[in-house]
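RECORD TYPE: inverse folding
INPUT: structure tokens
STRUCTURE:
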């Protein structure tokens, strides 16, 4: 059994129930599990590997609860720069239809690298389009190679334009095949054990891209295997109108009529919900992935996060798709979450610690994990360190290091350890060579968008 000692952190933030912050803190790891947390002087003096976190703030690894990694290929596409959601989708669907397995794999590598450097150690990705030979296996392979804890969502679209849906018919799949392939993916990759590195999620894309039958069958399938469920809901007013027009129900009532509420379900966005819907979400412990950057980028609105938290709705943080955010920086997303709630509520209505709570404990709860998001004995050894003596933190970290990570310019991590393994050291990602990856990714992006 191997051991690891992290010591001398300027500040170690546990995110435990007591919300302890430990000066000159550290932790001791055996294999992939934290064995002790506390002041450096109270920890074992030696280990097989010793990491000196002097000058750093150490946090639990951040949890990204919703993403579309393939969209890194279509960031800042001119035709979609100023579009709202439905027009944005209609512009990009034909481009995404040109992807293949290589495009999915390479874009996943690049997006995950960006997330890792921003502090994410656990990532959930929603892949719902499978042109040519693309499979969700492609991005699972990328995640395994980079060393990130991964919750891939086997997404799907089955309701094309000819059936009243939004996506073109050529990018939807047959529902029997969707369910059969989802079973295959669960049986091949899902790990229900503690500290699992891969857990599969069943994830029809949205109410406007799948049928009610697929939504119901997805619930049956997921609960038969004991896996979680995920979809988009209440992102825009257009979606609310779609639900009312097609079902006569508001988004949460529509979801509930199909069996889509419960502590094994989380929705992306949840921007346009009323007080009764929030109450019902809280009662059923149905979660939300808050995507502030994407909601701003597409003009979708500001999710009522203060109301969610006060009611008891589980809320995690997410960067969402890289073509609706054009970035995959999770600490940057925490900053946006802080600022947006203050604009929506009041200047003191949402704190830096709450923003980080969403990115750690909140995200863990949304994904159904009780082994990540906290630095405490028995938890997975997922943690990050940020260098405090930087230009972006100057004049902030000396006053309040925790607040500086959210209020100040978002930084990349100095250190990231996932499942007891260092994947970032001295600010460098160890598990992939970035320059050739960026070159390959850009070559695929040019081919997709420009045909060259």
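DESIGNED SEQUENCE:
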């Amino acid at each position: 059994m191997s051991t690891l000692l992290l010591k001398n952190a300027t500040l170690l933030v546990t995110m435990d129930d007591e919300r302890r912050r430990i000066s000159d803190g550290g932790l001791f790891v055996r294999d992939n599990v934290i064995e002790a947390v506390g002041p450096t002087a109270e920890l074992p003096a030696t280990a097989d590997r010793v990491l000196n976190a002097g000058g750093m703030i150490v946090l639990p690894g951040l949890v990204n609860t919703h993403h579309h990694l393939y969209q890194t290929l279509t960031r800042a596409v001119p035709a979609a720069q100023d579009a709202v959601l439905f027009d944005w989708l209609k512009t990009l669907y034909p481009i995404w239809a040109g992807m293949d397995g290589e495009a999915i794999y390479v874009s996943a590598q690049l997006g995950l690298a960006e997330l890792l450097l921003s502090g994410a150690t656990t990532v959930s990705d929603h892949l719902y389009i499978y042109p040519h030979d693309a499979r969700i296996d492609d991005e699972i392979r990328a995640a395994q190679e980079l060393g990130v804890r991964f919750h891939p969502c086997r997404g799907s679209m089955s309701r094309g334009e000819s059936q009243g849906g939004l996506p073109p018919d050529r990018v939807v799949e047959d529902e029997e095949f969707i369910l059969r392939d989802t079973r295959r993916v669960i049986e091949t990759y899902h790990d229900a054990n503690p500290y699992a590195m891969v857990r599969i999620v069943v994830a029809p894309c949205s109410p406007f891209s799948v049928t009610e039958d697929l939504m119901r069958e997805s619930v049956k399938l997921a609960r038969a295997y004991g896996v979680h469920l995920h979809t988009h809901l209440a992102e825009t007013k257009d979606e609310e109108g779609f639900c009312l027009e097609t079902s006569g129900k508001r988004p949460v009532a529509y979801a509930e009529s199909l069996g889509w509420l419960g502590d094994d379900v989380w929705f992306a966005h949840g921007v346009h919900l009323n007080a009764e819907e929030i109450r019902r979400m809280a009662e059923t412990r149905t979660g939300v992935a808050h995507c502030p950057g994407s909601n701003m980028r597409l003009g979708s609105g500001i999710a009522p996060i203060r109301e969610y938290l006060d009611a008891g709705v589980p809320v995690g943080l997410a960067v969402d798709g890289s073509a609706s955010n054009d970035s995959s920086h999770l600490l940057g997303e925490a900053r946006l979450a802080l600022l947006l709630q203050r604009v929506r509520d009041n200047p003191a209505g949402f704190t830096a610690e709450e923003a980080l709570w969403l990115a750690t404990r909140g995200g863990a709860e949304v994904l159904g994990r009780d082994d990540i998001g906290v630095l405490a004995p028995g938890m997975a050894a997922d943690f990050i360190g940020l260098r405090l003596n930087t230009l972006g933190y100057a004049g902030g970290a000396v006053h309040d290091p925790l607040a500086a990570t959210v209020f100040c310019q978002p930084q990349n991590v100095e250190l990231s350890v996932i499942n007891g393994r260092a994947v970032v050291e001295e600010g460098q990602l160890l598990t992939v060579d970035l320059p050739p990856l960026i070159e390959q990714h850009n070559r695929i992006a040019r081919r997709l968008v420009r045909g060259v």
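NOTES: The chain has a mean pLDDT of 96.
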